[in-house]
UniProtKB/TrEMBL annotation:
Chain sites annotated for binding ATP: G222, G223, S224, T225, Q226
Organism: Zoarces viviparus (Viviparous eelpout)
Class in the EC hierarchy, top level: hydrolase
EC number: 3.6.1.6
Record: active site: E192
Name this polypeptide is given: nucleoside diphosphate phosphatase
InterPro entries per the UniProt record, alphabetical: GDA1_CD39_NTPase (IPR000407)
Residue runs in coiled coils: none
Record region (Disordered): 33-56
Length: 447
């Protein structure tokens, strides 16, 4: 009898142990499957110390090895605020590709609300609503939301600019997207140059392989001008000013670039300097500017930074081209660093480089093309030495062309150097916005 009871007890304990082992194995398998994203659409939340990059990587390890990632970039310029909503296709062990871009612009720019920051909210909210309609809700919390302000806010008094940015930060914090402390900021010129360089080299495919040679980027804006390229000569890195050399990670590769933004050497600021003005509100009665770069005896008006100037040409005398070139050389004297290696690098040129080439008929406005330094030089001689400009041409075309040709040579480009001019590559705008979005997403991997 005792043996029977003992046998029953052992049998019961044996069954209990087998059952417990089965349950443990079952839950262990289920938890492992869910952690890798195969146990349902949601799965367990990621560990508290897991980064955004880790979560994106987990998403990419789904059975297809492919997923989509979104990025939202607000370009807050002086004349308007533009939103770029990028959709990237992510493939395992490959650089992302741009699947789609949604673009929308509103006016005026943020700086117009400097005295009443609250009024900027409506426009920003409209753009955020657009973003929510484009990005799937399941991707909202993983989609970085960024605003970079450029010239308009740089020129505002610091306190007014900060109040505007604080209002945008509050709106971003209330949105469902990924917003951090550094999501809203004023972009410096160097970052603008690097971001435009990333955009161009991504669109040309040169960032997709560590072995590819990259192209350089030249941008001539109204207030500043940028040059960015990847130096191959160690001498360039060693002899350049320290803050002209920057390194950063992109697509699992480290890139070192020579980059600098020359504030005050953009075309409109340069015009003012060449005409004899200064970048500040003139004193009463000092808005008349006389310049050898204008047609002799000509007279007209020009508005810059909310000031209307009377501009006049000098009396006929020294040939206009030579006199203007001398004036431009004085304005640029010792303000630009010449870098010899730039002559050997392929460059894309944007903004006013492009616009003046269109004015000359060298390229088509829609399709772009190529131009050489000597083309700007010869056009300058022709325009400056020709009869008075027709009403359809800008009275500043002579000045602009002389300035561009001298600036390019001061940067280190010989007369026969050729540049590519493009507003879009594969129908994507060649602005800094795409590059800045990639740069920001890359920064998430270190946080």
């Amino acid at each position: 009898m005792k043996r029977t009871k003992m046998a029953g007890v052992f049998l019961f304990v044996g069954f209990l142990l087998v059952y417990l082992m089965f349950v443990k194995h079952h839950y262990s398998t289920t938890n492992t499957r869910d952690h890798h994203g195969l146990g349902g659409l949601h799965g367990p939340p990621p560990p508290r110390d897991q980064t955004v990059s880790d979560r994106l990587t987990d998403d990419r390890t789904a059975s297809t090895g492919r997923s989509y990632q979104y990025g939202i970039m607000f370009d807050a310029g002086s004349t308007g605020t533009r939103i770029h909503i990028f959709k990237f296709k992510i493939e395992l062990n490959e650089a992302p590709t741009l699947a789609h871009e949604t673009f929308r612009a509103i006016t005026p720019g943020l700086s117009a609300y400097a005295d009443d920051p609250e009024k900027c909210a409506a426009g920003i909210m409209d753009l955020l609503v657009l973003a929510q309609s484009i990005v799937p809700p399941s991707s909202w919390t993983l989609t970085p939301l960024v605003l970079k302000a450029t010239a308009g806010l740089r020129l505002l008094p610091g306190e007014k600019a900060e109040h505007l940015l604080d209002r945008v930060r509050a709106l971003f914090a209330e949105s469902p997207f990924l917003s951090r402390d550094d999501s809203v900021s004023i972009m410096d010129g160097t970052d603008e140059g690097i971001s435009a360089w990333i955009t161009v080299n991504f669109l040309t495919g040169d960032l997709h392989s560590a072995d590819s040679s990259t192209v350089g980027m030249l941008d001539l804006g109204g207030g500043s001008t940028q040059i960015t390229f990847s130096p191959q000569d160690e001498k360039t890195i060693q002899t350049s000013p320290t803050d002209y050399i920057r390194s950063f990670r992109m697509f699992n590769s480290t890139h070192t670039v020579y980059t600098h933004s020359y504030l005050g050497l953009g075309l409109m600021s340069a015009r003012l300097a060449v005409l004899g003005g200064v970048d500040a509100s003139p004193l009463e009665g000092s808005t008349e500017l006389v310049s050898p770069c204008l047609a002799p005896e000509s007279s007209g008006s020009w508005e810059h930074a909310d000031v209307v100037y009377t501009v006049r040409g000098q009396k006929a005398g020294e040939p206009v081209y030579e006199a203007c070139r001398t004036k431009v050389e004085k304005v640029l004297y010792r303000k630009v660093v010449k870098v010899s290696e730039a002559a050997d690098v392929d460059f894309y040129a944007f903004s006013y480089y492009y616009d003046r080439a269109v004015d000359l008929g060298v390229i088509e406005e829609e399709t772009g093309g190529t131009i050489r330094v000597v083309d700007y030089m010869e056009a300058a001689k022709r325009v400056c030495g020709g009869p008075s400009l027709s009403p359809l041409q800008s009275p500043f075309l002579c000045l602009d062309l002389v300035y561009i040709s001298v600036l390019l040579q001061e940067l280190g480009f010989p007369p026969n150097k050729q540049f590519k001019l493009a507003r879009t590559i594969d129908q994507v705008e060649t602005s800094w916005a795409l590059g800045a979005t990639f740069h920001y997403i890359e920064s998430l991997k270190t946080h």
